[in-house]
Amino acid sequence: MSSKNIIADVFLEVANAIESGDFGPKVRIGLTTLGSEHGVENLVKGAELAKSKLFDIVLIGPKVDTDLEIVEVNEESEMHKKMEELLDSKYIDACVTMHYNFPIGVSTVGRVLTPGRGKEMILATTTGTSATNRIEAMIRNAVYGISAAKSIGIKNPKVGILNVDGARQVEKFLKELQSNGYGIEFAESMRADGGCVMRGNDLLAGTPDVMVTDTLTGNLLMKVFSSFTTGGDFESQGFGYGPGVGEDYDRKIFIVSRASGSPVVANALKYAYEAVLGNVSDVARNEYADAKKAGLDNIIASLNAKKEDKGEAEEVKMPDKEVVTHQIAGVDIMELDDAVAALWKKGIYAESGMGCTGPIVLVNEAKGEEAAAHLKEAGFIA
């Protein structure tokens, strides 16, 4: 479902509520107001901008001049304790806050407005740690991104994988999940060579609904997307760093930066409202169940086994050198040397290289098909 359709549905909901006079049980979204680099006033202004008949906003922080409800807290050290208390007691349904420490296995799913086409795009993920193994983390990030997208009304989100270290391995494993029945749909790069591994151009255009990346890169991208028009010290664009999503995580905590300005704070509150309506926690739980049916646990186990098996590298004799002009793409940068060594074991001379779309293995033209078949059999390419 497009953003236009989501907005249309919200307007229809508002119109029906106005006509009937029944807005139903109110969703309450909290907002902590201490800790911003731009002061309490900036956060309160964001809350005022977000005011709606669809949901109530509860400020958690010092007393200020506003019509909004305030749960008074005057120390930042006490603020998150109060927030957790209000969440766990169900007094609020979600909360927007800053600088929150999630447990390992939980990370946040950001939402930006791309400068190239003005399209919304989900960034999975932007803070937190989904797993300590990079490839495992990005696979989980894909599930988190799909969950967040579905919770805000995108029924069949198209997924792209940012061309960072590990992208090709992530592609291979996600496609394995897809072939085993997990309902993931892949985006196609806008560049001529296509594929679901996304280039910088796709970032600017918002090619996928969900862009999968490692969390540190996602955090950097959030900052660039949100403050590229302001010089960096005031985040004015987008919806913030998003909800903390995990396999079995129920607190709906949404993150903004200490540099987030009032427009981002307002959008983050609206993002929280949409994800509460779509019950992002339940969606994530269901997505995980589906991914596990498709073999997610086996994939994770194989990654951990591979990590443990990397002891002393086996010495492989290099075959006689040949002219290498045939390029084989799709091998991840982190496995490039291993892929070359695998071909040497088969008696095929190969070299590693870097093409315009990423890492490549170079072999003799006459041995291109044979080499590609060996690499596919060994799991280096999809």
Automatic annotation (TrEMBL):
Domain of life: Bacteria
InterPro entries: FA_synthesis (IPR003664), Gly_reductase_pC_asu (IPR012116)
Pfam families xref list: FA_synthesis (PF02504)
Catalytic-site annotation from UniProt: 356
Any one Gene Ontology BP term: fatty acid biosynthetic process
GO molecular function terms noted in the UniProt entry: acyltransferase activity, transferring groups other than amino-acyl groups
Protein name: Fatty acid/phospholipid synthesis protein PlsX
Species annotation: Peptacetobacter hiranonis (strain DSM 13275 / JCM 10541 / KCTC 15199 / TO-931) (Clostridium hiranonis)
Gene: plsX
